[in-house]
User: Which sequence fits this backbone?
């Protein structure tokens, strides 16, 4: 019985790891992505990216250029966006474009980090 439980945990851990590795999505950062549920303007790039994924998965507010991802479909994973961005990479140009414009970005999810680039 104990062996089966250990095996089940290892299988689930393996599936969770697989879901994180090497997924790419595209996102148009629009006006709705820069405002939270209370109507307040978001200040950080991580918050804007997280709101974009919440809009896509939870609220079904989508831009034509948005594409699907499996990882950020889960609220707990969206909550990790800031730490994943800190562990990852975003250029100053992409950061400024997200903050001040409405770019399309390519987001690569890899392990416990994300890389954001202009598309």
Assistant:
């Amino acid at each position: 019985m104990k062996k089966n439980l250990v095996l089940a945990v290892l299988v689930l851990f393996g599936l969770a790891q697989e879901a994180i590795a090497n997924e790419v999505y595209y996102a148009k950062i629009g006006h709705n992505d820069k405002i939270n549920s209370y109507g307040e303007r978001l200040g950080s790039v991580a918050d804007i990216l997280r709101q974009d994924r919440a809009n896509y998965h939870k609220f079904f507010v989508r831009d034509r250029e948005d594409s699907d991802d499996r990882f950020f479909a889960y609220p707990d994973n969206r909550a990790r966006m800031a730490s994943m961005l800190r562990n990852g990479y975003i250029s100053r140009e992409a950061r400024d474009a997200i903050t001040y414009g409405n770019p399309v970005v390519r987001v690569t999810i890899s392990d416990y980090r994300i890389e954001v680039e202009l598309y």
In short: Residues 15-19 have pLDDT under 50 and may be disordered.
